[in-house]
Every structure is written in structure tokens, then in C-alpha cells.
Amino acid sequence: MKKSLYASVLMLSTALVGSPASATTVQTLGVQNFFTDGAKISTGEFLGQVAPKIVGDTQPSNSVAPFNQFIGSDSASNFSTSWTFSYGALADVTAGSLQLGIYDHDSAAPGSQIASFSLNGIDLTTELNGLFEANGGSANSLYNIYTLTLPTSTLTQLASGTATFNLTLQGLGLSVLGRTNTNGAGLDFSRLTVTTVPLPASGSLLLFGLTGLLAARRKNRA
Fold this sequence. Notes:
This protein has helices at residues 2-18, 43-46, 125-134, 155-159, 201-221, and strands at residues 23-29, 69-71, 80-86, 93-103, 114-119, 122-123, 143-149, 162-169, 173-175, 178-180, 185-196.
């Protein structure tokens, strides 16, 4: 009986630790266009006058602010906005990523085009700027999709169930007339993915019970 009990605890521990179940929470804000990363499009296309949308979402008005709209301008003011994902508190968050579709953000211009970027107050400017500077944002590829792997410093905030992102751009910008001092852009969509690896409640209780039984048997033998 003792060997059988020890074997049960060992097998259960291996199963729970070696192959935990994972779950993924995905939430999208904005109506994602069919534009591909690096596509050269016009402002009219971005605003949905001629651009096709995902089936079932045929009008830009179906999306929520600040998505599917142009914010700021290359002649007057910088792009600056925020958006919030609300999905309920989560336990055992192990990873997160953010996907962003953005138009005319001019990251190919000299310098950094991101003034600030944060998640619930955690500064992620360097991380997103690295993606912006590595690809896209030029006059020949005005629309880009970026995927940012969120650092471990954000996991506690992701577990809270509410994630607010703040993004502000800055010049220099790019226009048909050359470089500009301000930088407007169009925000298409944003998608947050949060991964959890919970220990199944039934498995946790069973493992606790078997471990307690083993401890009791050792105490009795002593």
C-alpha cells in the first residue's frame, strides 16, 4: 500500500508540473483592415472609404475610439491617445503580447518617433521604439503591424484584468513636402494576448490530500 501511495504522489506531481494546462485570453479593439504589413495606402483607404473590412464589420463606426481614425497631423500636432482592455482578473499569468496596426507613423524619419509608450504606467517606450525603428514607417510603406512581447515586469498588471496603453508620437515626421516637426498617425487596431498556466483545482486538491496522507503515515511510523 505504501509503495502504491508513493507512486501515486510521484505520478501526479510529474503530470501537474511537467505538463500544465495553458489558457489564452485574447481581446481586440478596433476593426482590423485587410491591409498587409508594409502596404502603401491613402488616408481615404485607411479611414474606410474604399478599404474592405473584416466580414461583419463594414463600417469604421463599428469600432471604438480611438481606433480607425487619424489622430494629430504632420503640420499641427502629435499623435497622442490611450486605450484600455478590460477582461477580468487572471491568475498565474506567464506571458503577454500586444499587436498594433498603425498608419503613417513615420518611424523611418531621423530620430525616435515615439515620445512615450506605457502599460498601466510601466514605461515600454524603448521596447516599442525598437520595433518601430527596425521596420516600416517610411513613405513607401505607410501601414505597419507590430507585435510586441510584453516584458515580465508587466505580468502583475496584466493579471489585474485591466490594461491601459498610452502612446504619444513626436517629430520628425515625413510628408510629401519633406520632414515635419510634428507627427500625426492613424490607429487601426490593437490586440492583447495574455497567457496563463493555472494548476487545475482538482489536481491541486488531490495532490495536497495525498501529500498530507504520506506525512501522516510517516508521523505514525515515527
